[in-house]
Specification:
Layout (H helix, E strand, L loop, with lengths): L14 H4 L14 E5 L3 H9 L8 E6 L2 H6 L4 E5 L7 H18 L3 E6 L3 H10 L4 E4 L10 H6 L5 E4 L12 E2 L5
Parallel strand pairs: 1-2, 1-4, 2-3, 4-5, 5-6, 6-7
Helix pairs in contact: 4-5
């Protein structure tokens, strides 16, 4: 597994995540995961990889929108502050939420598909030595996302879903479509 962004290798128990298109193990992965993402398409992509962990070992961070509330019913969920686009107040609030959440949950890994809510959680996780895995969204083939550019330097593993995305993120691991 290549080193990504100079921050180390993906832990062995997370290798099936980046090999998602190749095959997933029969049972759930060990350890606790914190799945962080905006609602809508970002959440849909996280839901596609969530079965890699048992329901008891996963905690979600997203927005309390109707779709998210419905999709995550019965899951352990922490509601982040939104909107996040050009909203400094919510960036500060989500930064505090990230520190509090990462300290309390103590995940073995933080996984995200973006958007902006991911960045404070990646910073909090990396400051505590917790690995982070960023999966760039599948619908941005012709340009990198802002969140991808921000999270890459603090990602333990940086994954893309299209080979074309490696032109923006050299050395990223191509995992194929997660959906």
């Amino acid at each position: 597994m290549p080193t990504v962004g100079g921050v180390g290798q993906l832990p062995d128990h997370l290798r099936p995540l980046v090999a998602h298109g190749v095959g997933v193990p029969a049972g759930p992965l060990p350890g606790k995961v914190l799945l962080v993402g905006s609602s809508g398409g970002h959440l849909a992509q996280l839901l596609a990889v969530a079965p890699l962990w048992s329901q008891q070992n996963r905690t979600w961070v997203t927005f309390d929108t109707r779709d998210a509330v419905s999709l995550l019913q019965g899951e352990t969920t922490i509601w982040a502050h939104h909107p996040t686009t050009r909203n400094l107040k919510n960036l500060v609030r989500n930064s505090g939420l990230a520190l509090q959440t990462v300290r309390r949950v103590r995940p073995d890994v933080v996984v995200s598909t973006g958007a902006a809510v991911a960045f404070p959680f990646f910073l909090a996780a990396r400051s505590m030595g917790i690995p982070t895995v960023y999966i760039e969204v599948y619908d941005r083939i012709d340009s990198p996302t802002l969140t991808g550019r921000l999270c890459r330097p603090v990602s333990s593993a940086f994954c893309v879903q299209w080979p074309e995305q490696t032109s923006f993120y050299p050395g990223a691991t191509v995992v194929g479509s997660v959906m």
